[in-house]
Design a protein that fits this description.
The complex is a heterotrimer of chains A (364), B (221) and C (252).
Chain A lengths: L6 E11 L2 E10 L3 E5 L6 H9 L6 E6 L2 E4 L12 E4 L11 H11 L7 H8 L14 H14 L4 E5 L7 H17 L4 E5 L2 H7 L2 E6 L2 E7 H5 L13 E12 L4 E6 L2 E6 L8 E7 L3 E4 L10 E12 L4 E8 L7 E7 H7 L6 E6 L3 E2 L3
Parallel strand pairs in A: 3-8, 3-9, 6-7, 7-8
Antiparallel strand pairs in A: 1-2, 1-4, 4-5, 9-10, 11-12, 11-14, 12-13, 14-20, 15-19, 16-17, 16-19, 17-18
Helix pairs in contact in A: 2-4, 3-4, 4-5
Chain B lengths: L1 H31 L5 H13 L2 H12 L6 H4 L11 H27 L2 H8 L4 H12 L1 H17 L2 H6 L10 H10 L3 H28 L6
Helix pairs in contact in B: 1-5, 1-8, 2-5, 5-8, 6-7, 8-11, 10-11
Chain C lengths: L1 H15 L8 E7 L3 H15 L2 E7 L1 H9 L6 E3 L4 H8 L9 E6 L1 E5 L11 H4 L5 E4 L5 H13 L2 H4 L3 E4 L2 H9 L5 E5 H6 L4 E4 L8 E7 L7 H10 L2 H9 L9
Parallel strand pairs in C: 1-2, 1-3, 6-7, 6-8
Antiparallel strand pairs in C: 3-10, 4-10, 5-8, 5-9
Helix pairs in contact in C: 2-11
The chains are: A alpha+beta (364), B mainly alpha (221), C alpha/beta (252).
Chain lengths: 364, 221, 252
């Protein structure tokens, strides 16, 4: 997942807006979804607007799609950048029909690689075409807005908290469409959010922001479990694991999956062979044993190695684990008491067993 | 009397056409520009609202005359003054009704905000394209209100016409001037008929404008 | 108590728009062409008698329309003879109080000092694009101007060049601003602001512009109004009127 991928975006923006100052530099890969994550007001939307050219900072460089979009001498106007932009609010044109909204960017694009019909199917909006924009629900509007952005034939899709203005029901209605995007269209996506659930569910790569600065950037799992970063310090600190479905045991209704070669069991039917699913494992759901436990009811007991640890509170210790057999790339967090840490004589580098007592599917 | 009505309608229609062509770009600039000149220009445009029409008419009379600043522009056409002509009335009416066009247009453009225009830009629309395909259609209520108000205001205009017109039948004798003459010469029956017509017309215009405002008052995003 | 009563009466009569006997004052509605002369006469009258004169100016037509609608004027100084007579017929004026306070003199005037000679020949050679006159339907000076042109036999050729002011003041403005090269105005206006060139139109070319005054019904009980009308006939007032370019009827 973190392999050397083409850098699609190389960005550096520096400038101030009133009392707020922005100073960021990051790269994003040509594949998958890169999340821009941080608390409200940290500047992530500004960064996205800079990428689109909607906001201009004097001191900025931006290379994207193999071209210079901004440097000291150039500034490509927004309408000349091959980006699709999905705003927090749908921003549909109220004077146009749903179909005319969809075709607005399509008519102005130089290519027609992404066709109207496939997008109508992908976003599930065929029934909405004849409706007036005023009669649509919030979720329906946002689906039209996403379709409209995609039909402008973007080489890069920018999404600015596209779910934040929606109620829970509308969010759940749209999320599956968002999830299907990277698989259906090989367009890299920059996804801004302050909601960790969305980030865990949708992104592969993360740019972590705070107060106008980039705190860290890298693969999602690495950043979620990085003990030096604030994410691992959250009470609900968790690791995210990507699974591939192998078989389904109909008798017990358990799916056998694989994580980088290691077997992993998940209750329920996760999908046909080869399906990729994402599962979230909280640090508090992982306990440690120095010996292979026998007679345990825990389904998933994985061999692992302690990579590092950190004292999280006077009583608690947070332990970062690398799963054995995956050269440490697949990571887990475990939260145990300091008393246990000392009693078991744990230390970095030690091999042991991680017992996973609970998990939650991140997607669907 | 019918000549005066026909002349007034021609004057109002031509004035409105010119005002739409002039007021839409000007309203756009006033709504969107961050220039320091915005408020001074807006105040200048709004002047006819507060100035007595006779003041405006007097200055126009001076400005249009052979000693005024417009004289060098008129000389090539063999004209020594713009007063006493239909063209002069149109010029005066455009200036006099400018705020009634520009203000609703400016408000409408301001109401649209950045949202739809930014969306248009990210959908490959160049600024001029976005102006005509998004901003103007979204501001159509304001443009329509402005046009109706300008038309009505020109129909009812009196002071400026009085000051620069010269009361020439078929050229500068408009409806309001005709009413004034009827009153002056004690033909009150005719004055009543025309005045009642104007009253009904004004009521209809204001009603229509309010209906438009109500219909386009709730913008959707 | 008495003062309160008086104050209440004053307020009441103010609300009614007119104070016939309480205050030592009179309201005069005067034709616009007589503005300067009327101001001077009123000032002199006030200085001599201590009575206050409120002057309202407008076109005779406008003022007459206001009088018919109950405007609180005591005296009407019209620019013509017709309206005061009509006021009397309509029962708006006190019968027998009508008299000619001035006879207007017409001048052909231009802001251009070289345009007009003392014979008014410019009317015949027609070397101009616009000639301003007062609206002949409403203003006596306009009627007179048309009569002059007809008498000279130039009306047909000039009429396409005629522009009309609604009153004699606006007519003067058209000519003064140069938009019309020349105009028929009141001699009183020409004398007030020297400059340009002008021709005193001989009085035999048009019917006399009789400007009549009349005491209105509203001023019947106001002795200051009657006093002012009497003053208008005094030698002092007559000298002011003549100074402003008007003539007076010969004593009968």
């Amino acid at each position: 997942m973190s392999g050397v991928e083409a850098r699609f975006i190389e960005a550096r923006f520096k400038g101030s807006f009133g009392s707020f100052s922005l100073d960021v530099a990051f790269t994003a890969p040509a594949k998958g979804v890169t999340g821009l994550f941080g608390p409200s007001g940290c500047g992530k939307t500004t960064v996205l607007r800079c990428v689109a050219g909607l906001t201009r900072v004097a001191d900025g460089t931006l290379k994207a799609d193999g071209a210079v979009w901004q440097d000291a001498d150039h500034f490509l106007a927004p309408h000349k950048r091959a980006v699709g932009y999905v705003f927090q609010e749908p921003r549909l044109f109220s004077h146009l029909s749903v179909l005319d909204n969809l075709q607005y960017g399509l008519k102005r694009a130089t290519t027609q690689a992404i066709g109207l019909e496939p997008i109508i199917d992908l976003m599930g909006i065929r029934d909405l075409l004849a409706r007036s924009t005023a009669s649509l629900s919030g979720g329906e509007r946002q689906r039209i807005a996403i379709g409209r952005a995609l039909l402008s034939q973007p080489r890069l899709l920018l999404m600015d908290e596209p779910l934040s203005a929606l109620d829970r029901q509308s969010k759940n209605e749209i999320l599956p469409y968002l999830e299907s995007l990277p698989r259906a269209l090989s367009i890299p996506i920059l996804y801004v959010s302050h909601d960790l659930t969305e980030i865990e569910r949708l992104t592969d790569h993360l740019v972590l922001m705070e107060n106008g600065r980039v705190l860290a950037a890298g693969p999602l799992t690495a950043l979620l479990t990085d003990l030096s970063l604030p994410l691992a310090r959250l009470p609900e600190a968790a690791a995210v694991l990507d699974l591939t479905v192998e078989t389904h045991d109909a008798h017990y209704d358990v799916s056998q999956c694989r994580i980088d070669g290691l077997p992993f069991f998940v209750p329920g039917r996760l999908g046909p062979h080869g399906t990729r699913r994402r599962v979230r494992v909280r640090a508090s759901d992982v306990s440690l044993a120095t010996q292979q436990p026998s007679g345990s009811s825990v389904l998933n007991i994985l061999p692992a190695r302690i990579l590092s640890s950190k004292t999280a509170s006077p009583s608690q210790k947070l332990v970062l684990l690398g799963l054995a057999g995956t050269n440490g790339e697949t990571r887990l967090l475990s939260s145990i008491t300091r008393k246990s840490w000392d009693a078991l004589g744990l230390r970095p580098g030690m091999a042991l067993f991680a017992q996973i007592k609970g998990m939650a599917m991140v997607d669907r | 009397m019918w000549q005066a009505i026909w002349l007034t309608l021609q004057l109002a229609a031509l004035t409105t056409l010119i005002l739409v062509a002039l007021g839409v770009p000007l309203g756009w600039w006033l709504a969107r520009s961050r220039s320091l000149w915005v408020e001074p220009v807006a105040a200048l445009v709004a002047l006819p609202v507060v100035l007595p029409p006779t003041v405006l008419g007097f200055y126009l009379l001076v400005a249009m005359g052979p000693n005024g600043p417009l004289a060098p522009l008129l000389a090539p056409f063999g004209l020594r003054t713009l007063a006493f002509s239909f063209a002069g009335l149109v010029t005066g009416s455009v200036i006099y009704s400018l705020p009634f066009m520009v203000q609703p247009v400016r408000n409408a453009f301001q109401l649209i905000g950045d949202g739809p225009l930014e969306a248009a830009a990210t959908l490959r629309a160049a600024p001029l394209d976005a102006f005509f395909s998004v901003a103007v259609p979204l501001a159509r209520g304001g443009i329509l209100s402005g046009a109706i108000l300008s038309f009505a205001h020109t129909v009812g205009e009196f002071g400026v016409v009085l000051m620069i017109g010269g009361n020439i039948p078929g050229e500068t004798r408009t409806l309001s001037l005709t009413i004034f003459d009827y009153v002056e010469t004690m033909q009150w029956g005719a004055a009543h008929a025309l005045s009642a017509g104007m009253l009904v017309f004004a009521f209809a215009v204001i009603l229509i404008t309010m209906l438009i405002a109500r219909r386009t008052g709730t913008p959707q995003t | 108590m008495r003062r309160i009563l008086l104050a209440a009466l004053a307020v009441g009569s103010f609300l009614l728009g007119h104070s016939p006997s309480l205050a030592a004052e009179a309201s005069i509605a005067a034709a616009a062409n007589f503005t300067a002369a009327a101001q001077e006469i009123a000032a002199r009258f006030q200085a001599q008698t201590g009575h206050k004169i409120n002057l309202s100016f407008g076109s005779s037509g406008q003022l007459y329309a206001q009088i018919t609608q109950g405007a609180p004027f005591d005296v009407f100084l019209s620019a013509d003879a017709a309206r005061p007579a009509q006021a009397e017929n309509a029962g708006l004026a006190v019968p027998g109080t009508r008299f000619t306070y001035a006879i207007g003199k017409l001048a052909l005037w231009s802001a251009d000092p070289a345009l007009i000679d003392d014979q008014g020949r410019v009317l015949r050679n027609g070397d101009f694009t616009h000639l301003a006159i007062a609206n002949p339907a409403a203003a006596p000076y306009g009627t007179a101007a048309v009569e002059v042109m007809k008498a000279l036999g130039v009306y047909a050729s000039i009429s396409p060049k005629i522009v009309q002011g609604e009153n004699i003041i606006q007519t003067y403005q058209f000519a003064a601003s140069g938009n019309a090269e020349l105009g028929f105005v009141a001699l009183s206006q020409v004398l007030e602001a020297p400059g340009g060139s002008y021709w005193r139109v001989p009085e035999n070319l048009h019917a006399p512009i009789l400007q009549d005054a009349v005491l209105l019904k509203a001023g019947e009980q106001n002795r200051f109004a009657a006093e002012f009308l009497a003053y208008l006939k005094s030698p002092q007032a007559i000298s002011i009127i003549e100074k402003h370019g008007y003539a007076l009827p010969r004593a009968k």
